[in-house]
Design a protein that fits this description.
Length: 763
Amino acid sequence: MHHVFFWISIFMMYAVKGQGTSDYTQFVNPRIGTSKMGHVYPGATVPFGMVQVSPQTNFIPMFHEDGTYNKATYDYCAGYQYSDTSILGFAHTNFSGTGHSDLGDLLIMPTCGTLDLSKRNEMQDHGHASSFSHTTELAKPGYYQVMLEQHGIKAEMTATERVGFHRYHFPTSDDANLLLDLVYNVYHHKDKNVWTFLRIENDSTITGYRQTNGWARDRKVFFTIHFSQPIVHYGYQRYDKNHYKGFYRRFNEARDFPEMAGKELRVWFKFKTQANKPLMVKVALSSVSTEGARLNLSTELPHWRFDEVVEEARLRWNAELEKIKVETMDSSDKVSFYTALYHTNLSPILYEDVDGKYRGLDQNIHVSDGFTNYTTFSLWDTYRALHPLFNLVQQERNNDMIKSMLAHQSQSVHRMLPIWSHYANENWCMIGYHAASVLADAVVKKVGDFDREKALLACTSTANVPYFEGIGPYLRYRYVPDDMSHSSVSKTLEYAYDDWCIAQIAQHVGKDSLRQQFSERSTYYRNVYDGTSGFMRPKMSSGKFRTDFDPMDTHGQGFIEGNAWNYGLYVPHDIPDMVHMMGGKKRMTEHLDSLFTMEIADKYIEKNEDITRDGILGNYVHGNEPSHHIPYLFNWTGRPDKTQKTVRIILNEMYSPEIDGLCGNDDAGQMSAWYVFSALGFYPVTPGSTTYALGSPIVVRAELPLPNHKTLVISTKNQSPANVYVKEVRWNGKVLKTPFVDHNELVQGGTLEFLMNDKPNHY
């Protein structure tokens, strides 16, 4: 094992050297977005870590007793709500800012005194829950702390990539407990727990696995848990009814029997504790086996030096955060920026053991060859800005993520790239095949060494699966008919864009026939534009537009999570043609002005959980992803000043360093990636292109280290809250004639300089 410690030492030297004199973690508040709809968790993790140790504050069933959806469960996508006053325990897997959810594995809760496990109920009145106060809660990158008032226990946690590390300060007691709640899940329903198996290996080590059926319909989590003190007694409460017990009926399985199995278990461990000797717990995860979890534990965390792990986690975070060094006018902007950058480093997550083994989409065990395997691909969200951001500051990691997507496609019985995948499962959430966008963006930006021809084949295979979300009718009619598939307009628009991305890859690898084929398909957006109404509009298989159509409504109008005013402006791959088709630059400017100033009634958004007033500007919905490119469209109408003004309004009004500082789901980092790009002054309106649209930077100065020892500097002159307009932009001293800049020029290094002004300026 000496080689492991050698590389850890090398990492530590690099991290300290790279850190310099700045600690960027001090500007991060992990609790931002834990209120309202941000749906992020405040707990401890390292960048892109497999483990997220985080408090869970309620256990709400996904369905009511009559089988209807329980809307209250939506507030707990990340298991935590800032408004709550009780903690149920600390789970080891959590999504960050998703609009649907899963996970919440291996909930651990320390208690003192008699433990009543007779109730299986899913609400907060568990006997083991504890009140807490935010005044004793501390969340920093890689560390979380809180006082559990009910039991008088101070709880601390940190993490390595694959191991959660707890430290609990109990009072002196002969009646201290640790509860391992294997009933609990995020988005729980009565059939979610498929099976749980657990072994007491010795007086301080347990192993096991759980299998769940949720958003991922066949998800397995293997674990090894190691305690710093010996267990005195242990047992469990089982809530599922299994009348057949075979010859296990010979035993009293409920107490001090070293093997436990069932669908719904809560396991308790009793310890003797001393006030001056914390009880520590290490929880290692694996998708492969308990042996894999053991290996992860012994490799990453062979000791009990908690504070050292906290510091290592801080150094890991600082190494990622310092990849963009910014100066701002206001300290609150700096907190907003680095918290956003922090959020962009939470997922996708590492999904392999230290020996490279991982569970694949085919449920077989694979070994990563030439890449590190990742999971949690919320691609309908993250292709827009998160993966393009990675192509600037996480090129090696994004290359691994793409290879993970290609591995997914090779293991798929559908031969499809991921749509929304996590934990060796495809959950098929949302529409489009946006892995094509991620691949194309990396191809044109010359990122990574993944096989371009293999990528093209994976894309074309995905784009021709006839039974996936209306693709068959899309190919037949050259649009998705509204009477044959839901969200027909959104699908048509997104397929057209994804097809354009595939054409870019085909052009790169010299496959001209495929380039022509997918370039033709990329024009199909024209077939759902209704010149009479001036909107993209649902069209029937008869070729006629649907008659009952309200462009303000976000429900049942041929769009998904958006209305015709917002989603109808989605032609990112040919914006000049869209502007021409919709009446020209002047008419488009007026249309955009109306979008940002008109009102939208509550009745139009009340059926969409993802859309609330917090993220709306006029009728523009920033709180959900389909609109994120729209503020930059003025650049194509000859009015970049309107882009500058609008972007600055959004930066200032829809993001803040407060607990409710996100105006919508962070959606696995996309909402935060929009902020990072826009704060720097440019945005990837068209992933798969090397062009960035310029905006209005909020930073005073920024430095981005680039490959080959180069640096991109962003500098602003006359920066102030009033100077939201850009008078002039220079790239390496040369004045830019248009409100655009090229990625492949920026990565050569140099200075992008913005001269700010309080008056509009036209290019």
